[in-house]
Amino acid sequence: MNKLSLNEGWEFLKLPDGDISNPNTPEILSGKGTLKVTLPHTWYTDEDQYQGLAVYRRLLTVSEEWQKVFLEFEGADQHCKVFVNEIQIGEHRGAYSCFRVELPDSLLAEKELRLEVYVSNAQNQTISPIFGDFTIFGGLYRNVNLLITEKEHFDYLYYGTNGIIASTSLEGGNGLLEIDSHAIAPEGAIIRYDVFKEDGTVAAQASGPANETVRFQIPHPYLWDGKGEGRLYLLRAALCVNGNVVDEVCESIGFRSIKMDPQTGFYLNGRKEKICGVSMHQDFAESFSAVTKEQQDISFKLIGEIGANAIRLSHYQHPQYHYDCCDQEGYIVWAEIPMLKMTEDKELFENAKYQLTELILQNIHHPSICFWGIQNEIAMFKDAPYMHEMCRELYLYARKLDNTRLVTGANLYTVKFESELNKITDMIGYNIYFGWYYGEMNDYDGFLDQFHAACPEMPIGVSEYGVDTNTALHSGQPAVRDYSEEYQALYSETVYRIFDSKDYLWGSFVWNMFDFSSSRRNEGGKKYINQKGLVTYDRKVRKDAFYYYKAMWSKEPFIHICSKRFVKRTENAVDIKVYTNQKEAALYGNQGKELISSAHNNGNGTVIFKDIQLLPGENTFVVRSLETDCASDEVTFEKVEEKESSYQLPDSGAGKAVRNWFLKEDDLIREGYFSLKDSAYDITQNQEAMKVFYKFAPATAETVEKEEGIPLGLSLLSILGRDKDRNPDFKMEDLNHALNQVKKY
């Protein structure tokens, strides 16, 4: 097989009046208003968030030597139809997986072919995802290639694979390789398999008939063993017809064992390995989804720097290069399909099942992938029996396709412990945001322990947690929803320590490694972006919290002074906080010449120098490690008379619950008791609190208890504010007073 790039020479045209169900019309083909583009390409911009139909077209010169030709699309967002000379030759429904179409033999007699690729990102309730906190960009946003083969070849149309489905496992100290082959070849054709070590020597060889399953051993293989130990073998498969090799493909493979224990967590090759992970989307500032290899390398370099050992590749199939990097660098991977809202629509479910097939079969050879994710927060609005049935079918189907990995899902906070969604998969993750959307930061402690007590046989971890942060915003008294860099840092210090203390927890994934595009958002001083990243969207600025995790995970000696962007200060004295993996550090003033103080790491990646005096004007400080000369950092603070107004948003409501004008903060809270500030979910978990709720607001209470279209993570106050017309005969303060009499524990 020969692969040629088709990224150059395309014309592009938006078709706002077009319909993907019947795209090829004379009006569309008139050629007016086209733009010349190079792939990868997306039409999305923040200024023009077009959702609809578009066409890409180009001419293709045919060679007389071509026998079989396929068009390969590494990603088309999200519904795609392919035409050649106005004849439809293929269709694909799903934005994130590779697919291919074959050029008919009859057309290869032509000297030149006209390709038209229609792509639509219009809302479609039958293609997953139909909902999500990320942008559906649109476009041919990954590479397009031409595959040229002989008449006999591996089946490149088999779910976008190369026709070789290679699965590895360990058995009795040996590696077991099972290969399911798919080829277009006559009876009697065989496939010869060679497995090569890293040094190029042969580790094992085998052969078998095409289109049959072959199993063979690799004696005492070296192991793919996680971070820094991504040791791989190369599998080469050669299709032979009448003794001649007519096609050849190669895949990297690896051998490792995985296990999950509900009491002690995750094991890799028999060794307990706490998941210290980050999540990531595929997009990058300005390029959006049409990222380059160089941009992807920047992202992985930053993940390497922070020291994470695992990546959740959210919330869809990522480019093959991401999985290749994870294999090579040793990251433990959670890979998933874009099932974020599940309806009873059978066509939507079948689409999700098809995307799961593509995800698994295209990526089964990657040893880094340990977990297949089948759903993310599908119970956002309700938790219904049909969801349990569909998830159970997806689970069984995933295990049928691949019984060597664990199948998982991500539930949001409102999913009750006893829900069937916590009983279907091999493990579960919770996306929880105490200290941001609800509750207090320390509530993670009780929530996780309560889940483990209620579901002791289900391995539990935290699949998402984080807060939005704008690096231009700062506070000396950081508070929830102030979007300050200081609050994200404080939050990270507080909650990660809780996760790290729990042996039963398989681990956690920070949400998110990078800021990412979300066209529905407008908060924290920025539009169209989710700012929960530890690094900004353009990958140029590491937020302070980035260095907290680096202190906890990385072995590279370093020191980072926090709040360096919080330059202008009105205080006479400040605490200078440092994130570091060094045991002891010293603070110097006077341009780093005068020793002021030394302090020890508190065991949570932090050194704090208390009450450091600021003089009028600029004050420069240097912090150095007392263990090594290569770890130091410098900061300059400016003592000013008036607070810098740009450091705070004027209307963020920082530190305060959403509340009615007549309720003061002191009126809401009674320590240890329920209040309107508690989430609807918390209220539903307590019988006495629910009785009070029903007494004062029965219509809303019934809706909440039945989970009918209300996100239960919202505070009761917020829900009642939205639903006030259904409860006209009570006073909010009376309900709050009654809730204040009900103990939480």
How would you explain this protein's 3D organization?
- With 745 residues, the chain is an alpha+beta fold.
- It has five domains: 148 residues, Jelly Rolls; 90 residues, Immunoglobulin-like, CATH 2.60.40.10; 265 residues, Glycosidases (TIM Barrel), CATH 3.20.20.80; 80 residues, Immunoglobulin-like (Sandwich); 75 residues, no CATH class.
- The strands form ten sheets. An eight-stranded parallel β-sheet has the order 29-28-27-26-25-24-23-30. A six-stranded antiparallel β-sheet has the order 3-2-4-9-6-7, with no helix packed on it. Strands 34-40-39-36-37 form a five-stranded mixed β-sheet, with no helix packed on it.
- A hairpin with a 4-residue loop joins strand 36 and strand 37.
- Helix 3 packs parallel to helix 4 and helix 6 packs parallel to helix 7.
- It is globular, with a radius of gyration of 28 Å.
- About 1% of the residues have low confidence.
- Please give the number of β-strands: 40
Low-confidence stretches: 657-663
* Proportion of helical residues: 10-25%
Radius of gyration: 28 Å
The overall pLDDT, averaged over residues, is 94
Shape: globular
Q: How are the strands of the largest sheet arranged?
A: 29-28-27-26-25-24-23-30
What is the H level of CATH, i.e. the homologous superfamily of the largest domain? Glycosidases
Number of domains: 5
What is the CATH class of the largest domain?
Alpha Beta
Characterize the largest beta sheet: strand count, sense, and whether it forms a barrel: 8 strands, parallel
Q: Quote the beta fraction.
A: 25-35%
Figure out the total of helices. 13
CATH topology assignment of the largest domain: TIM Barrel
- Tell me the CATH architecture of the largest domain: Alpha-Beta Barrel
How far apart lie the N and C ends?
66 Å
Structural class: alpha+beta
